[in-house]
Amino acid sequence: MNGKAPHLAEHKVADSGAGADATHSISALAKEFGITTRTIRFYESRGLISPQRIGTARRYSKRDRARLMLILRGRNLGFSIEDVSQYLALYDADPGQLAQTRLLLDKVRTAINELQMKRRDIERSLADLSDIRARCEAHLKRGD
């Protein structure tokens, strides 16, 4: 590992090619991430991103874009808005990112356990449904 804390965003998103001072419009970010502008405004209303306001226009910094990427990755992994918010708050407050990494590890362990339980439930349901299907098919064959 490179010594940095693991991040929720381990996937690559196409770089806009802009420099470090570049800003992004809400529509450009929505298009890039395949989400609606309403979704971005929701994350802004929750304090997860804080774009600069120029008149009525929002301008998102490189930091906002990175945070949005983390938010979306966390949400795709099933984390709640509160979980993502906690993670981002620790990211800002903990330069060594140890607390952030501990929190992420705890959340990931919990998510894995929950998914494994769901998988067992699904496998059990599939077995039950397969049994019912077989019985129905056998009953119909006897009735023909």
How many distinct helices?
5
Q: What count of structural domains? A: 2
Q: How large a portion of the residues is in β-strands, by DSSP E?
A: under 5%
Distance separating the two termini:
65 Å
CATH architecture of the largest domain: Orthogonal Bundle
Helix content: 55-70%
Mean pLDDT: 85
Q: Whole-number radius of gyration?
A: 22 Å
Secondary-structure element series: HHEEHHH
Provide the low-confidence segments as ranges.
Answer: 9-18
Apparent shape:
elongated
The biggest sheet, with number of strands, parallel, antiparallel or mixed sense and barrel status, is: 2 strands, antiparallel
Please write the CATH class name of the largest domain: Mainly Alpha
CATH fold label of the largest domain: Multidrug-efflux Transporter Regulator, Chain: A, Domain 2
Instruction: Tally the beta strands.
Output: 2
Biggest sheet, spatial arrangement of strands: 1-2
Structural class: mainly alpha
